[in-house]
Amino acid sequence: MALAAQSRALERMQLALVGRRADDSSDEVLVEEALVDAHPVVPLAQLPEVARSVALLKGRKLDDVIRVNEAVKASIEEWLTWMRPNLLDTHENYQYLRHRMWPVYESAGLPEALLFGLLAKESGGKVHAVSRAGAAGLLQFMPATASRYGLSLNGSFDERFDARRITEANVAYFNDQFRVFNDDLELALAAYNGGEGRVGRLAG
Fold first, then answer.
1. b/e per residue 159-184 (b: at least 16 CB within 10 A)
2. Cα separation of 139 and 163, whole Å?
3. Is 122 a residue of the active site?
4. How far, CA to CA in Å, does 29 sit from each of 14, 18, 42, 204?
5. Is the pLDDT assigned to residue 130 strictly greater than 70?
6. What domain range is 73 assigned to?
7. Which pTM was predicted?
8. Are the beta carbons of 54 and 109 closer than 8 angstroms?
9. Gyration radius from the chain CA atoms
10. Share of the chain above pLDDT 70, in %
11. Are the CB atoms for 169 and 138 separated by under 8 Å?
12. What is the per-residue pLDDT across 63-122, written as a single tens digit (0 to 9) for each?
């Protein structure tokens, strides 16, 4: 599948940076592939919020969760052709941020491919990225959403520019959206990028 090919390409990039071959079985791959049971006994709706993403995604690859339709294929083709320089820049930037961001996703049971994809789409891995609409930081939180998820915007430092804090807020946001959209990752991603109200109206 196309997403699997993209994951393998990212893995090869990661191994190349440390001078190892993609067939070296001693290396951990870039994309986390958890090996726990994918069918929890307890229904998702009854799980604590912090565990919802674990039950939703662990044991499955990201490309097993997302339907690869024509729109997704077209987007992947764009990222691997004319947007490839942006993808490579994001990957390079991510190497300096990974130790702050990935442990948060790993603890929540979310795949690293999801984190990297968001980073590429939202900011290109630029810590101080700010959009014309007012979204800021690596994962582009608007001020109201940032405040809602406990990020401080007051004083001498805007926590949207803190790699770990904005990743924690991002995970909390997704757990909320999984609940709102009945654990549909695609709708949760659409809400993140396009606004909860708009997606809620379209999904309803």
1. bbbbbebbbbbbbbbbbbbbeebebb
2. 9
3. yes
4. 8, 12, 30, 38
5. yes
6. 2-203
7. 0.70
8. yes
9. 17
10. 68
11. no
12. 666 777 898 889 989 999 999 999 999 999 999 999 999 999 999 989 999 999 999 999
Q: How far apart are CA 7 and CA 147, in angstroms?
A: 33
Residue 139 has pLDDT above 70, yes or no: yes
Quote the CA–CA distance of 41 and 47 in Å, as a whole number.
10
Residue 113 phi/psi, 5-degree rounding, is: -60, -35
Q: What percent of the chain has pLDDT over 90?
A: 51
Burial class, 26, CB count within 10 angstroms (exposed 0-12 / middle 13-18 / buried 19+): exposed
Q: Which residue has the tokens 């390409």?
A: 9
Q: Which two tokens stand for residue 9?
A: 């390409």
Q: Given 32, 112, 122, 159, which residue is catalytic? A: 122
Residue written as tokens 């795949």? 111
What CATH code is carried by the domain that includes residue 198? 1.10.530
Q: Is the confidence at residue 50, as pLDDT, over 90? A: no
Q: Which residue is it, tokens 């520019």?
A: 161
Q: Tokens in use for 24?
A: 């070296």
Closest by CA to 166, choosing from 111, 200, 113, 123, is: 123
Q: Count how many domains the chain has.
A: 1
Q: Is 195 strand, coil or helix?
A: coil
**Which token pair is 99?**
């130790």
